[in-house]
Amino acid sequence: MDEELPCDSIQFRFFYSDSTSFNHWGYACAIDNVILDGLFPFNHDVGVIKIISPQEENLIGVPVNVSVKYKNFGNNVETFLAIVKIVDSTNTQVFSKDTNLTLIPYEQIEINFGSWTPNKTGSYFIYTKTILSYDEYPQNDSTGYSLIVKNLSSWRPITQPPLNYHRLTHATVYDPDNDKIYMIGRTPNGEQGSNVPYIYRYDPVLNIWETNLAEMPEPRGWIQGGYWNGKIYVPGGYTNSGTNSNTFFIYDISSNSWTQGPPLPEPRFAYGLAVWNGNIYVIGGYPGTKTVYRFNIANNQWTIAKSIPLEFDMGGCVYLGDTIYLVGGYRRPYDQAWTRILRGIINNQNPDSITWTWGAYLPYFNFNNGACALPGKIYMIGGAKQVYLPQKRVWEYDIAKNEWKELTPYLFTISRNNFACARPEKGGNGARIYIIAGDANCDWKILNNYYYYIEKGILNYEENLKKEPKILFVNPSIIKDDLKIHFILKTKSNVYISIYNLPGKEVAKIYKGIKEPGEYVIKYDCRNLTPGIYFIILKTYKTFSSKIVKIR
User: Fold this and answer.
1) What is the pLDDT of residue 5?
2) How far is CA 69 from CA 118, 173, 241, 534, in A?
3) CATH number, span 41-149
């Protein structure tokens, strides 16, 4: 039996006779093909196994691959045409590709037809078909389904740097005095020797990057940076020779130049960093330590501050006023991710004295996550749940309530921390959270070129939107003869109901007229339709669609 299938021939009989689910019908047809392959093989039969991509939900402006898996089900070598098309809700074609394939008996192949970038929201149909003039079993020649293209869940793209935009485990630093964001150092792919010394500056007002800034004295990765009074402080880091560093690089924004400060007392990378009142705190770090070092900018010297209660590296670190928060992290000696948020209050009279207390449990064990803060709130973005599972979820920690709330997720999984920063409200724009590159799959692949922001005020927009009730219902979804079309109107509307086939041609007009607000049921005799996939289209103040399958 084909490895794609989750059921057997007994299930086939049940689904085929009793089920009204389209998914079940799909299994039934697939099982039908397998049974026919094994018991009644066709000499000439090619068809579609499934559409691999795009998925049913997609994001506006985000490219997706269009790929389909085909198979030669017959006993002969066949050369045939494979076609895939995407149409919008007005049946306007927005993507169309075809290719000739040659497959030996029972061979299957996945074809990538290229990239499609949705440029508007709404409903779409994707369908694919094979064309072989003497095909003996056309029932498996085509398939398709509805697509939805949504807004970016309020995440909006920003421009990429023109050079070296693949980046992870870099430092992302916000300069509040000049309203700029800096991306400093690290690597495009995690390979030893691939760290870069570049520092780029982003202007969130003009949406442009400057890339001609002075380079770091040496390339570094797994770093954080802290801004204070016109300078950015970057301690330690991972070197191109694969060692842990204790260097201390300082970037002067006004002169566009780097200097070196006193070295860290010990080499560190993947640490937490906080800034308070002219002090730079380096917290934990690889190879898994509880030590906290404080650098006093005025005195130009390092001291040892109060240690944290658990080993920490590769986590999020944010600060608000005199309070430091560690959000996620890794206990390297124990191979464990952090489970709670840790709060440290700095003693104003003795900055080396920090009172560390545990806050709420994290939503799940997490490390390699991004973190940033706005007044009263802390944000945990992505990471690796329970060490191994990359995440795209976004969480808000309410400091006063000591509790977490899940918000609009990011567009995809993201990790390798230090990719997030928060920008407070500026010039009439709401507070924003920026994602500056990062590891999209938590696997060190070169997919680290995503740059987005979200308005903090609409992070939880989904809670504030009233979901539009479903308007169109079709019963059953798999039909032989009669069909019932249920629809609901909120206002008096012009109504037009029709049926389209898979290639997007209107094959039946069901109703046209004006209806008052209310619920309606229209019956339609489908016995004149040939077997296949169809779409019921309801046009009122918007266009709605529902898929049906006609069987013999």
Assistant:
1) 39
2) 22, 45, 44, 21
3) 2.60.40.10
**Domain boundaries for CATH 2.60.40.1930 within the chain:** 472-550
Dist CA 438 CA 216 (whole Å): 20
Residues of the chain with CATH 2.60.40.10: 41-149
The DSSP letter of residue 312 is B
Tell me the average pLDDT across 97-121.
Answer: 92
Counted residue by residue, the chain has a size of 552
CA atoms within 13 A on the CB side of 63: 5
Span 215-234, average pLDDT:
96
Read off the pLDDT of residues 158-184 as tens digits, 9 standing for 90 and up: 888 888 878 888 999 999 999 999 999
Give the dihedral of Cα atoms 74, 76, 80, 84; nearest 10 deg. 30
- Helix/strand/coil for 35: helix
Is pLDDT of 373 > 90? yes
Q: How far apart are CA 430 and CA 365, in angstroms?
A: 31
Q: CA–CA separation, 182 vs 166, rounded Å?
A: 15
- Which single residue is written with the structure tokens 């959270």? 433
Domain 472-550 belongs to what architecture?
Sandwich (2.60)
Question: Which tens digit of pLDDT belongs to each residue from 295-314?
Answer: 999 999 999 999 999 999 99
Instruction: Tell me the pairing of strands 108-116 and 155-157.
Output: unpaired
Query: Lowest-confidence range among 69-78, 334-343, 411-420, 456-465?
Result: 456-465
CA dist., res. 238 & res. 286, Å (int): 10
Beta strand segments in 420-542, E = 420-423, 432-436, 451-455, 472-475, 478-479, 482-489, 493-501, 506-515, 518-525, 532-539
What is the Cα Rg of the chain in Å?
29
DSSP, collapsed to helix, strand or coil, labels residue 27 as: helix
Give yes or no for residue 458 having a pLDDT over 50.
no
Helix (H) or strand (E) holding 464: helix 461-464
pLDDT of residue 28: 40
Q: What is the CATH number of domain 155-458?
A: 2.120.10.80
Joined together, the tokens standing for residue 15 give 């689904």
